[in-house]
Amino acid sequence: MLALLSKPTRPVVDWDRLSRRIMDQSAQACWVVDRELVTVGVNPALCALLGYRAGELVGSHLLAYVAEDSRSVLERQAAIRDLTPHRSYDVTLIRSDGTRLRAIFNDSRLDGDPDPDGRPAPGFCIFVTDITRRSEEEMQRALRVDQLADAVARMNRFLGQICQELKDPLSAILGATQMISSDVASPDPAGASPAPGTAHLGAYAALCSDAGRQMMRTIENLSLWSRLQLNQVPMDLRVYELGGLLQDVLEELEPRARSRDILIVNRIVATPVLGDLSALNTVLKHLIENAVRFSPSGSIVMLSAALADGRVTVRVQDNGLGIPEERQPHLFRIDPHHAAPGADGEVGSGLGLLICKALVERMGGGIRVFSKPGGGTAVTVALTSGGNG
Length: 389
Prior knowledge:
- It is a single chain.
- By secondary structure, the protein is of the alpha+beta class.
- The protein is built from 9 helices and 12 strands.
- The protein has helices at 15-25, 44-50, 54-57, 71-79, 132-185, 198-229, 242-259, 277-293, 351-362; strands at 29-34, 39-42, 86-94, 100-112, 121-130, 238-241, 263-266, 272-275, 300-308, 311-317, 366-371, 377-384.
- The radius of gyration is 38 Å and the shape is elongated.
C-alpha cells in the first residue's frame, strides 16, 4: 500500500526585504524615486558615487543632483514614463564636491498597489552607470581627430602656397632654356661658324628643359592634390564626347610616344560621358602618360571603351613589364618607396593614380588596375554614360 506523501511546505518569502538586501549589496548604484521624482531609497553604491550619505539623499528631489544642461532630458523622460516602462538615457550629475559625473540612467517603472488616491505606485528604480571616463576619452579622441584634420588642412594649404611660389621661377627657367635651344638651333644670318661648345650648350639646355618640365609636372600634381584634399576642386558635370577630348590629349602626348617608338592606338569614338571637362582631361592625360612611361620601346598602348548598363568603361592597356603583386595594394596610397621607375628610369611621385582616383570618384565613377608581372597593365575607368540610351 502506497503512503501518500504530504506536499512540502513552501517557505514564505519576504520579497520587500529580499529586494532591499539585493539593492544594498549590489555594486551597481541604484536610485529609487516616486512619481514626483522625490528620492525614496538609495543604496551604498550610489552614496559612494555621489559622495552623499543616504539620509542626505532620501526625501530630496532628483533634479537637485542633475546638471542644468541635463534637466530637460530627465523631465522629458519623466513625461513619457507611463508610455515606456523601461528607458535608458544619458545625464550629467553633480557630486557633493561640485564635480560633474556623466552617467547612463537605466530607468524602470515599479508596479505596485495604488496609493489612497488611486494613482499607480510606488515609482521608478534607476540603475546608474558612471561613464565619465569613457565620455572624457571620447571627447579627447574627437579633439585629437579635429586637431589632426586641422593640421592636415593647414599642411595642404601650405603645400599649395609653396607650389604656387615654385611655379613662377620654374616657368622663367623653362623659358630661358627654350630660348637657348632656339638660339643654338637657328643658323647665323652672317654665315659664321657656330662657336665651339655650342652643340654642348644646346644639349645641356635640352636636359635642363626636360628636368624642368618633369619638375613642373610634379609641382602641378602636388598643387592639384592639395586642392583636392581641401575640397577646392569644383565639379561641373556635363556631357562630353570622349573621342574629341582624347584628340587634344593625344596631340600633347604623341611627341613623347614617338620619341620612344611607342604607338598609341585609339579605338574610342563617339562615346558621350557625364563628367567635368578639366577632370576628364587630367585623368586621360595621366593614364595615357603612365602607359607610355612604363611601356618598352616599340610597343603599343591601346585605348578602348565599352558601354554597359548606363556606364562607359574606358580602358588604357599597355604591354609593359606589369606591376609586381606586392606593389599593387599600394597603388592608391602615398607610398613613395613603392614607386616604380619607368622604362627610361624616371621615378614618379605616385600622385598620378591618386589624383585620377579622387577625380573619377568625384564624377561618380570608379577606377581599377589590372596587372600581371610580365603581362602588362590595364587601367579601367567607369563613368556615367552621357547617351540617351
